[in-house]
Amino acid sequence: MFDVLTENFDAFASGLWVTTRLVFASFVVALVLGTVVAALRVAPVRAMQAAGAVYVEIFRNTPLLVLLFISFAGLRRAEVDISAWTAGIASLGVYTSAYVAEALRSGVAAVSRGQIEAGLSLGFSYAAVLRRIVLPQAFRTVIAPLASVTIAMVKNSAIVGASLLALPDLLKEARIVNSNTFQTTEAFFWAAVGYLLLTATATVVFRALESRYAIHR
């Protein structure tokens, strides 16, 4: 069991680093897009609410693998020069942003309507009220749900490496080790340990954020 790890440590370490970069970049995309979509979902204009709802329904109900095919093979067929990295980050980020948006929407709903009305009565625009009053509280309320979304994103990142993008992530490197050594159980066991390290790290980080910033009711 340990021979597979020691003899192929560089491959596993490289794959883990690629997966870490992929997850981090995709999380940034998901957080930015999810915040924008959540703002649309709670906007006072029906058209904006509808746009946010359509976005969430499309990307939450479309399989990630389909998005990967569209963003990479589809765009290349349309003569759009897109790299595998860009397609992977964009697909995973956009897919996850729908879940981030719904988590934030629930956090916005937890903020009392009186605070919004007070901000508007003081002369702030609705966008300013969201940015300065509502969203900071919403983020503090949904730290735990965001942790679950992030852990799910770490696991979903394996689909990117297993797809036609063939990024050299942790799963891809485990498959290469398996094909070279024919030690299937051992190769994928250490891949699972790598993913567990990432999810455990995310759990620790979000628990620290929750204990420091979460609003306890």
Please tell me about this protein's structure:
By secondary structure, this protein is mainly α. It has a single domain, classed as MetI-like fold (Orthogonal Bundle), CATH 1.10.3720.10. It contains ten helices and no strands. Helix 5 packs across helix 7 and helix 9 runs antiparallel to helix 10.
Mean pLDDT: 88
CATH topology: MetI-like fold
Our count of helices gives 10
Shape: flat
DSSP summary, beta strand count? 0
| Number of self-contained structural domains | 1
Strand content: under 5%
The gist of it:
By secondary structure, the chain is mainly alpha-helical. It has helices at 2-7, 9-41, 46-60, 64-77, 84-110, 113-121, 126-141, 143-162, 170-181, 184-213. It has a single domain (2-213), classed as MetI-like (MetI-like fold, Orthogonal Bundle).
